[in-house]
Amino acid sequence: MIRNERKKLLMRFKSLKGIQDILPPETHIWQRIEHISRDIFKKYGYKEIRLPIIEATDVFIRSIGETTDIVEKEMYTFTDKGSRSVTLRPEGTAPFVRAFVEHHLYNEPSPQKYYYLGPMYRYERPQAGRQRQFHQIGVEALGVEDSKLDAEVISMLSTLLKTIGLKDVQLEITSIGCIKCRPDYRAALKEFLRDKLNNFCDDCKRRYDINPLRILDCKVPTCIENRKGAPSVINFLCDDCKKHFEGVQRYLNLLKVPHIINPNLVRGLDYYTRTTFEVKSSSLGAQNAVAAGGRYNKLVEEFDGPPTPGIGFAIGVERVISLVKETPHEHESPDLFLCTLGHEASEKSIVLAEQLRNRGLWVEMNYDESSLRSQMRKADRIHAKNVIVLGEDELKKGKVVMKDMQGKKETKVELDAEEILKVLQKKK
Ligand code: HAM
């Protein structure tokens, strides 16, 4: 009864909705993906940048856009003890550009290439593929406007996803133009929406005057239905944007990166100009984007930096992992487990374990006075490859027996780190 009460009490403490613990052995997959990413980024000259997970709220409002879902509905915003409005980062590009300007990184030789990984926070309704805390691995490349850089960034993303083991994903690209082509498109879109506006949700009605392009990203079913047939920005591109987009396609073809052009691709962030893209998977259901990004040629100026074009992407690690379908399993097991009988053996064991670890082995040992049987059971449970039993007799003779837990073969060996290492190395 008391135990049940206690259990109930303990269960009161759970992680927050949409915010998950990541436990071993799944962490192994995370490490693998992080390792592959770092490895690939290095070959393209990207350096790691580590950014705070909390920023002044304005950092996000100014960049992501006041009328976006992220800013209007999804930010974890609160007032800190100094009465400042602060926000847990919902994405990495805005904090990155804030840091880029703050630390004058634009003075570095261009393109300036950086990558980051870490948690992001969006207060969305949790569902498959959508968490409130999720992780992104992102890159940002600045200082070059040429479409070769767009193609290089997209090609790197494609290589990254392939190396991780993702199959059946589709890369969609488009161009959303620049400030030069936007006014004509905006006018055409407003014209199209004018007579239908009554059928749209209140948010869309409000967005019509302030930022009509946002109506294209509304998730309300009636709004989706009513905006069908809306003009596409791709038909309004100015000559420079057209040329740039043709360049992106030409270089992607040259690099043999499969892609389709989706003129209806809409990104949920306002800072993009020209190239935008998403990698989608049909196995993911409603939340089908595993990675997404685009160019942002005006964002650095928005943060009071010098005119500096930029482009980047972020992959959603949880979504990628759900597609890898790798059965999480322990890829490694301890080389050796030291069973101990008695105080003296315990003392010898703690020293021996350390000596062997310093020589590169994974060694586990017994820490208490449990029976030999229970120690052997434990060695078995953690899949130790070898076991040594250390008792009074072994200490006296200076010799131990090493038991191979799979072949069950026994080898006599001197009670000495170097000798034990030699035997274990022979087995590897
Ligand atoms: P985003 O499209 O908002 O872009 O997010 C990028 C990726 O993060 C998505 O494709 C998805 O895989 C993942 N993601 C987003 N929200 C969630 C969620 N609630 N749960 C799980 N995964 C999620 C950006 O964040 C831009 N900063 C990308 C970028 C970098 N553009 C230029 N540079």
Describe the 3D structure:
The mean pLDDT is 94. This protein has an 8-stranded mixed beta sheet. Strands 13-12-14-15-16 form a 5-stranded mixed beta sheet, sandwiched between helices. It has 428 residues and is of the alpha+beta class. The longest helix is centred in the N-terminal third of the chain and has 18 residues, at 26-43. It folds into 2 domains: 14-181 and 237-323, 2-Layer Sandwich (BirA Bifunctional Protein, domain 2), CATH 3.30.930.10; 333-423, Rossmann fold (3-Layer(aba) Sandwich), CATH 3.40.50. The chain has helices at 2-11, 26-43, 57-64, 69-74, 93-102, 147-164, 182-194, 202-210, 221-226, 239-254, 299-302, 317-324, 343-358, 372-381, 392-397, 417-427, and strands spanning 47-48, 54-56, 76-79, 85-88, 112-121, 133-142, 169-175, 260-261, 275-281, 289-295, 310-316, 336-340, 363-365, 386-390, 399-404, 410-414. The structure holds histidyl-adenosine monophosphate. Histidyl-adenosine monophosphate binds next to β6, β10, β11 and α12.
Keywords:
428 residues, alpha+beta, BirA Bifunctional Protein, domain 2, Rossmann fold, 8-stranded mixed β-sheet, 5-stranded mixed β-sheet, 16 helices, elongated, binds histidyl-adenosine monophosphate
What general form does the structure show?
Answer: elongated
Structural class: alpha+beta
Number of strands: 16
Kindly give the count of domains. Answer: 2
| Ligand species | histidyl-adenosine monophosphate
User: Rg to the nearest angstrom?
Assistant: 28 Å
Task: Give the SSE layout.
Elements: H1 2-11, H2 26-43, E1 47-48, E2 54-56, H3 57-64, H4 69-74, E3 76-79, E4 85-88, H5 93-102, E5 112-121, E6 133-142, H6 147-164, E7 169-175, H7 182-194, H8 202-210, H9 221-226, H10 239-254, E8 260-261, E9 275-281, E10 289-295, H11 299-302, E11 310-316, H12 317-324, E12 336-340, H13 343-358, E13 363-365, H14 372-381, E14 386-390, H15 392-397, E15 399-404, E16 410-414, H16 417-427
Parallel strand pairs: 1-5, 7-8, 12-13, 12-14
Antiparallel strand pairs: 2-4, 3-4, 5-6, 6-11, 7-9, 9-10, 10-11, 14-15, 15-16
Helix pairs in contact: 2-6, 6-10, 13-16
The protein binds histidyl-adenosine monophosphate.
